[in-house]
Amino acid sequence: MKRKLIAAIGVAVMITGIAACGSSKKDDNKAGGGSAAKSSASSITVWLTVDAQHNWPELVKAADDALVAKHPGLKVNHEYYAWPDKNAKLDAVLATDKAPDVVEMGNTEMVAYMAEGAFAQIDPSKFDNSAAWLDGLKQSVTYDGQVYGVPYYAAARIATWRKDIAAAAGVTTTPKTWTELTGDLDKIQAKEGAKFSAWYQPTRDWYAAMSFVYDAGGAIAKQSGGQWKSSLEDPAAIQGLTAWKNAEAKYMHGDLTKDESDRYIVYGQGKSAMIYAPGWEAPSAADPKFDKTGGKLKTNLVNFVMPGPSGKALPVFLGGSDLAIPTKSKNQDLAAEWINDFTDTKGQQGLMGKGNLPNNNTQLATLKADPASAVTAQAAEISWFVPTAPGWGTVEKQNTLQDMLQSIATGKKSVQQAAKDADAAIDKVINVKN
């Protein structure tokens, strides 16, 4: 997932993702991070995003120090990139012999690079907590049965509403089921009127909409015989899309052509009660720069796990990053060691201290006991990930899902027709390498 830079707004709760390392594609020559081997290299180069540079530079330094302690005299060089710039620079350098040794990738960005053989295969057993990696993160670094990355940290979506608005409508507890949620939203909508959004849910936010598809037992696409086929017309997917459409029609009274990029700003304007979003968005809306409610957001925001129509918690898309080792790296084993030093149990603990989710269920369990992180930790337990198909990057670039959702919400197309058209568009590219 390509994350927006949130360091500038000083948000404490940021959730992103992780990175992977690799080596030769032969099983007996995988890059590993478990033991130090002698190396003649004088330096390695690590590319990270500005998230790490601005928010946990001490954790980066700790990984550097751990690697240098095993390889005295080694220098770890860092280059930091904003998300919009990184991939263009990476594509250019991968065409040369100057590839970095470690690169941070958004987790949905990984698929196309893995399919092209740009990243080296790794042996996950060489990395801390790999047996307990969160399912959604493990999927993001796996292609064709092989692993090309190491989960770093994750972002889970949660529901947040204003308890003052809920109380004014006679609602004093957070909902545990879909029936309770919709009943409460009905009361809020009736109390606040037709111009108010009981639930502000941007139409083009496909991460949220697809959660309804997976909740109903559907999927964006399915693999059979080595080929992927879009499955949005399947009955389960239609059921999920219909539930999403009905909620949009009842509770979303904002612009039906918008995406989620400024959702936290819109929420700060005070014209909606609830959002379903990454954990950093509601605190961002409460920042004085964005809160237009006279300070009401800061003391009235309440988080809860989003219930789904199925009767279970709504499956979440786990956003995040992966650290990968380019195949052209000349120092793959050192790169693997650095990644393990950065993402090991101690490193994950440091990231948790910065408000992130860890990459594994073992440490995630400790967050459930903390009221400040319990909701996000619980939400992360049930997750889904995009199809790990060679052409998935093209699907994202073409905005096929966003356009489908907008056409449904605006009434331009029926759910069935929009799904049929989206399936046709996806099937043209999903099996074609980018």
Question: Your description of this structure?
Answer:
The structure is a single chain. By secondary structure, the chain is an alpha/beta fold. It has 2 domains: 7-156 and 318-384, 3-Layer(aba) Sandwich (D-Maltodextrin-Binding Protein, domain 2), CATH 3.40.190.10; 157-314 and 388-429, D-Maltodextrin-Binding Protein, domain 2 (3-Layer(aba) Sandwich). The chain is 40% helix and 15% strand. It contains 19 helices and 15 strands. It has helices at 50-55, 57-70, 83-94, 110-115, 135-140, 163-168, 178-192, 206-215, 235-251, 263-268, 281-285, 296-300, 332-343, 345-353, 361-367, 374-379, 392-397, 400-409, 415-429, and strands at residues 43-49, 75-81, 102-106, 142-143, 146-147, 150-155, 157-162, 197-199, 221-224, 227-230, 272-278, 301-304, 316-317, 319-324, 383-384. Strands 2-1-3-14-6 form a 5-stranded mixed sheet. A 4-stranded mixed sheet has the order 8-11-7-12. Residues 1-29 have low confidence and may be disordered.
* CATH level-two architecture of the largest domain: 3-Layer(aba) Sandwich
Tell me the number of strands: 15
Gap from first CA to last CA: 17 Å
CATH topology of the largest domain: D-Maltodextrin-Binding Protein, domain 2
Our count of domains comes out at: 2
Main sheet: strands, sense, barrel = 5 strands, mixed
CATH superfamily of the largest domain: Periplasmic binding protein-like II
The low-confidence runs, each spanning 5 or more residues with pLDDT under 50, are: 1-29
* Order of strands, widest sheet: 2-1-3-14-6
Backbone CA Rg: 22 Å
Pairing-aware structural class of the strands and helices?
alpha/beta
Q: Average pLDDT, to the nearest integer?
A: 90
Total of DSSP H or I helical runs spanning 4+ residues: 19
Beta-strand portion reads: 15-25%
The coarse overall form would be globular
Estimate the helix proportion, in percent.
25-40%
Name of the level-1 CATH class of the largest domain: Alpha Beta
